[in-house]
Specification:
two-stranded antiparallel ribbon, 6 helices, about 75% helix, Arc Repressor Mutant, subunit A, mainly alpha, 2 domains
């Protein structure tokens, strides 16, 4: 398991650099791109919920969200479950931006995928997803123990 974790960590850095390259072409960072993708794929959510899902500091997500709202790529909406905690929602402009990035990103991913066996990619995805779920469980348990 240690080798797998190390391989994931070492793959993260070049993947992040490539993500930054795709995002910078449309004036964004990979972190902003990621926030937009999350809202598109998982729906409206609060800053706190998104921060817990990463897990990163709530303030970091708030800064990203404020920048994206200023650019009108997301908007803040009333939250029926909380008076002060607004929901972040991707805007039509945010969706258009994701489409622009995807126009370059998807062909790159397709080319990269052609170098790998599809069944191995599916297996690796299941393993990494399971590992993430277990790591998130560990984080939640540690936070509860420290509360």
């Amino acid at each position: 398991m240690s080798e797998l974790i190390n391989a994931i960590v070492f793959a993260y850095f070049p993947l992040r650099a490539i993500g930054d390259d795709f995002a910078v072409r449309v004036g964004q960072t990979s972190a902003e791109w990621g926030l937009l993708r999350t809202l598109r794929d998982r729906g409206d959510m609060t800053v706190a919920k998104l921060a817990r899902s990463r897990p990163v500091a709530r303030q970091w997500i708030q800064r990203l969200a404020d920048r994206l709202a200023k650019e009108r790529l997301i908007e803040f909406a009333e939250n029926p479950n909380h008076l002060r905690s607004k929901l972040m929602r991707i805007s039509p402009s945010g969706l258009q931006l994701l489409d622009r990035i995807a126009g370059r990103y998807e062909p790159w991913v397709a080319d990269l995928a052609s170098e790998f066996d599809l069944s191995q990619v599916r297996s690796a995805t299941l393993i990494v997803t399971g590992l993430r779920e277990r790591l998130m469980q560990h984080i939640r348990e540690a936070r509860n123990a420290n509360s």
